[in-house]
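Issue 218. Parser rejects a valid record. Input:
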Amino acid sequence: MEVDSAQYASMSREMLVGAPLTELTEHGQRYQSRGYPDKPPLIFWTGALGMWLLGPTEAGFRLFSWLAAALSIWAIGNWARLLWGQAAVWPSRWVYACNLGMLLMNVDLRTDSLLLGLTTLALWQGQAFLFQRGTGSLVGFILSLSLALMAKGPIAAVAVVVGLLPSWPMVERSRKSQAHPLATSPLHTIRLIPALLMVILGVFLLLSPMLWGLYNQWGWHDGVRYYLWTQSFGRITGENPWANQPDPLFLTGSLAWSFLPWTLILVASLVYAVKSWRIEKWHYAGLGALMGLIMLTVALSGSAYQLPHYIYIVWPFAAVLCGRMLSATRVNKYLWLGHNALLILLLLAVAGLTALVAIRPVASIAIGFAWLVISYLVIRGRFTGNHALLAHTVAMFILLSAALLLVFYPNVLPYQASVRAAQWYRSQSDDDPIWILGCGDESLHAMHFYARRIVPVATKPTELPPTAAWVYTDSEGKAHLSQSGRTADTLQVLPFTRVTTLKPDFFHPQKREKILENRYLIHIQPIFAPAHP
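Output the parser choked on:
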C-alpha cells in the first residue's frame, strides 16, 4: 500500500540488486525525504534479506517483519511471567496479539512490527538481567535494543528505560529476599555498573555502521544528529520540520480504536494498576509498565507531527497491564456487560463494512451472528470466568480479521491502479520498457516494486523513448500522448483512488464512480525514421 509500505519495499528491492547498504537510494537516486534521513535502515536491510531468500515478492519483503511480530508475542508473555508469574502469560499474549492495530500494522507493513518486536524483546531481556545479572540476558538485551534503535530511532531506548527503571527498587528487594524465582543468580554474574558500560559500548559498536552511513550521506547535523535527536525529540521542541498540528488527544483516541476489542479492558486495567500501585508502592512490579504507558502517551501527544501508528509503541505496556488484571481478579459484571456490548457493536460494524464493499447487508449480519452463535456454543462449557471473556474476544477478533483480509482489502486494493498496471506489464511476453507519464502527485512507489525495476518518469511525450514502450499515465497524459502522434495498440483502463484515504462516497455504489479517476496503461509503437534518398 502507498505510501510508506510501498516505498520501503521499493527501496529494499533496490538494495537487493546492488544499492549501498549504508547509503539509501530511492528510484536509483540518493534518498532525499525533505533533506533528512526519514527512517533508519533496518526495514530496508531486513526487506532486502527477505527478498534475497524468497525473491523480490511481498512475502520476501514481509518475512522478517512478520517474524518480529511473532517474536514480540512470545516475548510479551515472557516479560509478563517475570513481572507476575505464569498466570499472566497467556492473557498478556492474547491481548497483545489480537487487536485491530496489530492486524493493520502487519497488513500495511511499515517499521512498527520491527520496532515493537525488538522493543518487547529488550524489555523482557532487560528485566531478566535485572533479576539474574547473567551474561546471556545482557547480550540479548544489547542485541535487541540495538536492533530496535535501528528500526525507528531513539524512541525504542526511551520506551525500554521508562519500562525498566521504575521497577529497579522492586527487583533489588526481590533479589535480596530471594522472593522471586529468578532472584538466585547464575554462576557467571555481572555487576550493574560494568553491565551499563557494556550496554553503552555494545550499542555504539552495533550502531556504528548505520551512523557511519548517515554521516557519509548526510553529515553530522542532517544525518547523525537528526537520527539521535531531531527525528524524535525535535518534534516536541519544534526543530523537526514535520508538523501537522494534531489535537492533544489525537493519540489517545488512536490508542482507543487501535486497541479494539480490548479498549474497555485497558481502561479497567489502568484503574486496577493505579490502585495496586497505591497499595504496594515501590513493591508494585508493574510500575514500569504503568509509567511507560502514561508517560509515553503524554510525551508523544506533545509532538508537532502525529500519525495513528505512533501510539503502537505503548502496546507492550498496555498488554501486560491487561494480562495482570485478567489473571489476578475476576472481571466484574458491569465491565463484563460493557465489554460484551462493545463486541456486539464491533460485530455490527464488521457487518456494515462488508456490506458496503461486497456483501448484501442482510447476508453480512446473518454471517456475523452465525459466527457469534457458533463461537458461543464452542466456548460454553470449555471456558469460565475471565478465560471465557478472552475466548469470546479472540473469536470476535478472528471474525474481524476475516472480514478485513477476505472481503475489505480484496475489494479496495484493486483501486491502487499502479499495482495492477505493474502486474499487467510483468505478465506480458515482450521486453519493452515501462515509463510513467505525468500522474501529478500520485505516489508510485508500488509500481517500481511490482514492476521489479526502476520505472523512469517523463513529464511530456517527447521524453519517451522512440522505441516501443508501455506508458502508465492519467487522463491528461493520455491526451498529450494522442496529440503527439504516437500510435498505440493496447490500452488498459484502470480505475484509481487513493486507498489509504478513502472518501465516504467510495462506499456508496451509486456515488463511487464520481470520485474515481482513470489511469491508463498504454503500449505505444516505435517511431520510424524516414528513409534517406
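Fixed in the parser; the record now loads. The chain has 22 helices and seven strands.
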